[in-house]
Amino acid sequence: MICKMTYNPEYRKNQYLKHIEYYKTYYEDNRDNILEKSKEYRKENREKIAEQRKKYREENLDKIKEKSKAEYLRNIETYKKYYEDNREKIKEQQNEKVSCECGCILSRNHLSRHRKTDKHKKKMQEKCSIENKK
Ligand SMILES: [Zn+2]
User: Is the dihedral of CA 62, 64, 67, 71 positive or negative?
Assistant: First the structure.
């Protein structure tokens, strides 16, 4: 008898509507409570997610480090070989005179070192202030 009732579509529909009605009422009555709870839940979850992300990054960092180390070593070999094959050419290139953005003219292999010097920084500052005055 119960089985028959359970499988009666009309009965199930009614149960379903009752269910929905019940939840609707429950929600209306407890709206603030529910919102507060879900807010709390999200807050707790946010910390949890942040922690998981942090953990993931930390775990991944090792992988990335290993990968980039292997990449670095491989690149060094390639670079070494390239250097051996093109020693003269590279020397020429590095001795080639280039002009720095500060106005200095110097050989290419001194460029990166020169950019860290006070002379370069001072000149760039002067250049900037002149350009700002324009
Ligand atoms: Zn410079």
Answer: negative
How many other CB atoms are found less than 10 A from the CB of residue 86? 12
Higher pLDDT, 4 or 70: 70
- Measured in Å, residue 99 CA sits from the centre of ligand 1 at 8
Q: State pTM to two decimals.
A: 0.36
**End-to-end distance of the chain based on CA atoms, in angstroms?**
96
- DSSP conformation class of 106: E
Is the separation of the CB atoms in 34 and 27 below 8 Å?
yes
- Tell me, in angstroms, the distance from the centre of ligand 1 to residue 90's CA: 22
Around ion ligand 1, residues with a beta carbon closer than 5 Å are 100, 102, 104, 120
Question: What's the pLDDT tens digit per position in 63-76?
Answer: 878 888 888 998 89
User: How many angstroms does the Cα of residue 101 sit away from the middle of ligand 1?
Assistant: 6
* Between 114 and 129, the higher pLDDT residue: 114
Between 131 and 15, the higher pLDDT residue = 15
Q: Which helix H or strand E contains 27, and what residues bound it?
A: helix 9-29
